[in-house]
Amino acid sequence: MTNVWVKNAISAIEADFQRSADTHLIRLTLPDYPGIYFYLKDESTHPSGSLKHRLARSLFLYGLCNGWIKEGTPIIEASSGSTAVSEAYFARLLGLPFIAVMPFCTAKRKIEQITFYGGRCHFVEQAGQIYTESEQLAHKLNGHYMDQFTYAERATDWRGNNNIADSIYRQMSREPYSVPNYIVMSAGTGGTSATLGRYIRYQGLDTQLVVVDPEDSVFYDYYQQRDLSITGSCGSKIEGIGRPRAEPSFIPDVIDSMIKVPDAASIATLYWLENVLGRKAGASTGTNVWGMLQLAKAMVKRKEQGALVTLLCDSGERYLDTYYNPSWVEKNIGDITPYLTMLHHAEIPANASEASGHKA
Predict the structure, then answer these.
(1) Is 278 left (phi over 0), alpha (psi -120 to 50) or beta?
(2) Beta pairing partners, 312
(3) CA 313 to CA 186: how far, in whole Å?
(4) Taking the alpha carbons of 30, 33, 37, 40 in that order, is the dihedral positive or negative?
(5) Is residue 303 exposed (0-12), middle (13-18) or buried (19+ Cβ within 10 Å)?
(6) pTM here?
(7) pLDDT tens digit string along 201-210?
(8) Tryptophan synthase beta chain-like PALP domain spans which residues (predicted)?
(9) How far is CA 159 from CA 21, 24, 154, 162, 255, in A?
(10) Which of the 8 DSSP states describes residue 129?
């Protein structure tokens, strides 16, 4: 017989979903790219402030329906911040204790939001330590380790309604190019790119999925070589994306191509985008938009028209002391001026096919 608490917990999550409107699809008009339509899926408007709200909801439902989460179960997650914020939100909704295992360098604002929702932060020195530490904490506390890096690709129903891919295509249905030429996405767990790629194939759509990857991440190298032994020595400076190992939820065969993006290009794009959009976005959005502009430039060069969609993953207000602090950027990222110049003069490299490496 279904546990009453579990039934009520699932009902509470579904009620929260019903109270939440879908996120906006923002159209950008860029005169330097004639015939190209740009769209940003604004995931920062979720109640917990980021794309990871979708993942956290799915992970909680997955854990509840699998019998892993019960009344009073401590929830432990390995996260660089945004997933932990969203999971803390749902843990508070269900009255469950929550612990986020994260590197010391995580943005201060994310830490504040986790504690605001009643969560606790457990810090480690290196990004690669979060997995083992989370497992040990879950065992010690008789809790449930959410393990977003393993379960992100399977917790979301990529065939069904209300996933992010379905939402994008519904919102694009009345646009001049209802089926975008490209959807551009960065990978943290790999779960969102897996959902997008599977949905595109399931629906028989002609969109290409391009995944952008920051420095100090091994997803790009793994995509080219398919070697699971490839590891990195440090974590990505672009919070929320890039990993020092190929995560189980990263599914390379649903991706059409990948682009490696320099960190300085990601941050320069944030500043450029603030002028275009009138608001601040997080660093992973800068990575996404840089890749989108590179593809658009190649389309213009080939005299093609069409649409490109990417994600605005979270708000830049979370990063005022890092990515929007010039001193921090100079120390940790380096000189972003050459990329700012390229952006302001629409001189983005156009040969995206060479930049993308292996093609699936």
Answers:
(1) left
(2) 42
(3) 10
(4) negative
(5) exposed
(6) 0.92
(7) 999 999 999 9
(8) 23-313
(9) 21, 21, 11, 9, 17
(10) G
Residues 6 or more apart whose CB falls under 8 angstroms from that of 297 comprise: 33, 346, 348, 349, 350, 352
Could you read off the pLDDT of 231-274 as tens digits, one per residue?
998 889 999 999 999 999 999 999 999 999 999 999 999 999 99
What is the third-level CATH fold of 51-153?
Answer: Rossmann fold (3.40.50)
Start and end residues for every CATH 3.40.50.1100 domain found in the chain: 4-46+162-346, 51-153
Give the type of residue at 255.
I
Report residue 2's pLDDT band, with 50, 70 and 90 as the boundaries: low
How far is residue 33 from each of residues 166, 298, 342, 343, 347, measured CA to CA in Å? 27, 10, 14, 12, 11
Tokens encoding 281 = 């976005």
**Letter for the amino acid at 153?**
E
Closest among 68, 241, 235, 75 to 149, alpha carbons compared: 241
Kindly write down the DSSP assignment for every residue of 5-36, as one continuous string: HHHHHHHHHHHHHHTSPPPPEEEE--TTSTTE
Residues 6+ apart with CB under 8 A from 19: none
Question: Would you give the distance in Å from CA 247 to the centre of its chain?
Answer: 14
Q: Any idea which fold 4-46+162-346 has?
A: Rossmann fold (3.40.50)
Give the Cα separation of 146 and 119 in Å (integer).
Answer: 14
Q: d(Cα 266, Cα 327) in Å, to the nearest integer?
A: 16
Residue with token string 């249905």: 173
